Amino acid sequence: MSEGLILQQRLAKDEFFEYDDHSPLNDAQKTEFTGLSYYPYNPALALVVDVTPIENTPTTQIMTTKDTIRNYQRYATFTFAVDGQPVTLTIYQTPHGFFLPFVDANAGKETYPAGRYIDPVRLPDGRFVVDFNTAYNPYCAYNDRYECPLTPAENRISVPILAGEKIPTGDWIELK
């Protein structure tokens, strides 16, 4: 996605969080909400990747923030480089589409400790759009009433991904 489109999406998300009845924020949080924090747009992390399909894998069980289990299908892996370091991640398939949870080296410092998510898009030729500028925090980062899948070990990487949403900060987050 282009930088302009990413910036438009970020503004729309802030408006949704502050004003919409379906926002993950409670009323007290909405009153104090000052916006989400993001890394600057990073064109080097807006990727179109070739994937290696994972054949005949059983359903993978992933724990959630409330200690329950959700079932996902491991779909494919892909490898890319971050500052010259190769990184491999797994894309999962759900009944609702594709899902890419990941934890980077900045988890707990600049990014949400339980991980961030991307909704990769499969292209007609089988490749995927994986734009880390669209990385977002799960709703459980904002409000304890939500239950979110935790990032599996295979998607915990030792390099920082300096793109997408940062850990929520501000007085409003303390009201969750």
What do these coordinates show?
About 15% of the residues lie in helices and about 30% in strands. It contains two helices and nine strands. Strands 2, 3, 4, 5, 6 and 7 form a six-stranded antiparallel β-sheet that branches. The protein has about 180 residues and is α+β, with helices and mostly antiparallel strands. The chain has one domain.
Runs in which pLDDT lies below 50 for 5 or more consecutive residues are: none
Report the radius of gyration as a whole number of Å: 16 Å
Order of helices and strands: HHEEEEEEEEE
Structural class, from helix and strand content? Answer: alpha+beta
Number of helices: 2
Biggest sheet architecture: 6 strands, antiparallel
Number of strands: 9
Q: Report how far apart the termini are.
A: 32 Å
Give the CA-based shape: globular
Strand content: 25-35%
Domains (count) = 1
> Can you give the mean pLDDT?
94
Task: Give the helix proportion (percent range).
Answer: 10-25%
